[in-house]
Amino acid sequence: MNGLNDNKFRGEKEMAYQGIKRRVFISHYKGDRTEVDDFVQKFAIEEKVFTPYVLGANDNDEFINSANPEYVMTQIRKKYLLDTTVTIVLIGSCTHSRRYIDWELKSSLKQGEYTPNGVMGIILPSKGNSAYLPPRLEDNWSKGHENCYARYWVYPKTAEQLGAWIEDAFNARTSRAHLIKNSQDMMKYNAKCKICGITH
After folding, report:
1. Neighbouring C-beta atoms of residue 37, cutoff 10 Å
2. What is the secondary structure of 39-108 as a DSSP string?
């Protein structure tokens, strides 16, 4: 493919998604990184649905050596969540048991100094139609999405579908913030995985 056509192709891809493009923090377990990268490649890079921020505390937690939850949440907000407005938890087999996922969710849901992030979960393709939710995500979700802050979904089929989910999470920051449940203590350690039966 020559340079002219290649540029034209990239230009067409820029137009692939016509909705609002939000800054999204991707919370994930590093064991799912191949599927996480595929999700970002398809929906952020190719379809242009959102602007991704992927590097999370589960990749580098060297600064989080404090027993003070407020300090930990502040550090995650400043160093990782930055100016993102929506947090997507990509859910695989062991995601529910990871303390860093819990920390990222607690920081995303924190109210006060910052407007909370909209929060949503997406089940990765390897898990099919169901998965164990991280406890803090489950606390903010209810069946049928009734009277709850967070939503979770099976893997999106189209860019438009994902865009609508992200916009719903973004709007929840004001319309459903009163439904946030975030008083639970932060996980101090990884929990026993309900799939593997071990603590990773």
Report:
1. 14
2. HIIIIIIIS--EEEE---TTT--TT---S-HHHHHHHHIIIIITT--EEEEEE-SSGGG-HHHHHHHHHH
Token readout for 9 is: 């192709």
Instruction: Say if residues 117 and 156 touch (Cβ distance below 8 Å).
Output: no
Residue of 133, 139, 69, 79 whose CA lies nearest to 101 = 133
**Residues in a beta bridge with 119:** 87
> CB neighbours of 101 closer than 8 A, spacing ≥ 6?
27, 28, 29, 58, 89, 95, 134
Per-residue pLDDT tens digits of the chain, which is 200 residues long: 333 333 333 444 456 688 899 999 999 999 999 999 999 999 999 999 999 998 644 444 454 566 677 787 788 888 888 899 999 999 999 999 999 899 999 999 999 888 999 999 999 999 999 999 999 999 999 999 999 999 999 999 999 999 999 999 999 999 999 999 999 998 988 999 998 888 87
| Structure-token match 């913030």, residue found | 177
Tell me the pTM: 0.86
Map tokens 């589960």 to a residue.
Answer: 58
Q: Which residues pair with 133 in a beta bridge?
A: none
Q: Is the dihedral of CA 28, 29, 31, 32 positive or negative?
A: negative
